Amino acid sequence: MKTAFNSIVFIFMVMSMTTASFSATTSISPEELVQLQLDAYNAHDMDAFLATYSDTAQIIEFPSTVQAVGKEQMRQRYATRFNDPTRHCTIVNRIVMGNTIVDHERIRATFPEGVGVLEAIAIYEVVDGKIVKATLKVGEKKLDTDVGLPRHSEK
């Protein structure tokens, strides 16, 4: 009986240590969180994308126009984007300062006029392991035909 009790106590201790160890290793840096968000964006995985944001996150068009508040509005905003198989974001440059990440992004997408790219600056603010605000400054789009590249269907 004493051996069985000792075994149970040992198993409980190992499970407790494993759980504590897992919890300690699951916290990620703001930069890693923003990268997870980008990876989900490029995979067109809406649930994984939204999981990186707080429930009350704000999407702001620079300098201060609110585009979406909360995950449901974000889901509506990004649904069309995630249905575009061409859409893919590449980081040109990233600056990390504490809980703020600034990305210079190059986004390939299908626009009503055709396939092309646009550049953007995204400023992500992270609090308690979630993105609470993303401020976006979007540049002009350039269609593939504008820069002499073949149309997407020709590749």
Automatic annotation (TrEMBL):
UniProt keyword terms in alphabetical order: Signal
Protein's UniProt keywords contain Signal: yes
Domain of life: Bacteria
Matching Pfam families: SnoaL_2 (PF12680)
Keyword Transferase tagged: no
Xref: InterPro entries: NTF2-like_dom_sf, SnoaL-like
Domain (SnoaL-like): residue spans on this chain: 37-133
N-terminal signal peptide: 1-23
Protein name: SnoaL-like domain-containing protein
